[in-house]
Amino acid sequence: MQVKAPRGTYDVLPPDSQKWQYIEQVIQETARLFGYSEIRTPIFEHTELFERGVGETTDIVTKEMYTFQDKSNRSLTLRPEGTASCVRALIEHSVYGGLMPVKWYYSGPMFRYDRPQTGRFRQFHQSGAEVFGSNSPYLDAEVIMFLVQILSNLGLRDYELHLNSVGCPLCRESYRQKLIDHISPVKEKLCIDCQSRYEKNPLRVLDCKVESCHQAIAGFPYIYDSLCDDCQEHYILVKATLEDSGINYLHDNNLVRGLDYYTNTAFEIHIPSIGAQSAVGGGGRYNGLVKACGGPDIPGIGFALGMERLLLALDSLPDREEPNSKLDVFLAVLDEKYDNQAMQVLDRLRKAKIMVDRDYTGRSMKAQMKYADKLGARIVILMGEDEVNRGCFTVRNMSSREQLEVQTEQLIPAIIDILT
Ligand code: AMP
């Protein structure tokens, strides 16, 4: 029986892997410019971390986690997102005792058991950022600017930034009752999940993905109208800073993060051209999360970008250049008795940072030239009896078709000369 990759997972083969490297490189460079350092956390954690850190009533925790018992009967879970692990690491290593704010970014695989479709996988990849230790609205703006800068450095300009404020526990207290009063009379029209969660967590109804729930609660009161003075001022400053930086946004009353530890700014980035799953990333402030996970009362804010959806968006750009996978040099070995010597030549060139390859399948001279062409080699070096006897190489420039004879010690400068 042929074993295939599990449903909802996939392999990244060359040349597609170059696109991944490209995105990761852009994120790394942008992170450096914004002063964010990389954190790497384990791919599995104690299940309890996500129950507390993501929220016991969320879809992720109730339906989508890859949870298993290890051989010591511990309950472990493949991480469904990155924030909880960052919060755990912050607390575990008392990083908050050092320089604040702590500015981290991460990239890696995440796991959610959901129905696979375009842009939705069971193993997918996120790059994200988390900042701890400041409640400044300018930091909210910076985090959003970081996200937007990644998109723009990737050449993605047709995005929509949705923005809202979910206030603080104080303003949510009064809002919660208003929302429950609005929802109660129509509760029979809600989906099963919303019916059971609306009293405990009415904000979750607002971000329910089921269309009939949206219709049922039409005309719901906006949290924006219940913000306390501090939260209103915070939101105004975030918006003004984005406006002054030329970043367009849409105020979105439906955008909420329904859990208690989310506070103030919430945002989502959509790229409509990639289809139904158009959200490429989202994030927000979570001033209550570190405390909820057993740490001190430290504010935090972060975002996560979905790499697969970024790739979809990149692929949909009309004038996108394919990554350059061309080979610099192909070494054609014309007689197997020079195989060993050829390895020394490859070694010399590679140590001089020249990208070079050769044939290992016993191709004829003609087949090697065809192979070099397929690899896109810019230069072919011929190494045959004649050359070896005379201590030289024949160097062919594949674009001009010019051929020259180069003494062994002149090989590297001659190649660099053609390549540059
Ligand atoms: P979330 O943590 O749910 O806010 O997700 C942040 C981003 O990760 C989303 O905007 C998507 O781009 C991406 N994402 C979330 N779930 C998946 C999935 N199952 N497959 C692919 N990408 C995903």
Observed structural traits:
single chain; 420 residues; alpha+beta; BirA Bifunctional Protein, domain 2; Rossmann fold; 2 domains; 5-stranded mixed beta sheet; 21% strand
How would a textbook summarize the main sheet?
8 strands, mixed
Q: Give the helix tally.
A: 16
Number of strands: 16
Provide the CATH top-level class of the largest domain.
Answer: Alpha Beta
Number of domains: 2
| Ligand roster | adenosine monophosphate
CATH topology of the largest domain: BirA Bifunctional Protein, domain 2
Name given to the CATH architecture of the largest domain: 2-Layer Sandwich
Short description:
The chain is of the alpha+beta class and 420 residues long. The protein has two domains: 16-168 and 228-315, BirA Bifunctional Protein, domain 2 (2-Layer Sandwich), CATH 3.30.930.10; 329-419, Rossmann fold (3-Layer(aba) Sandwich), CATH 3.40.50.800.
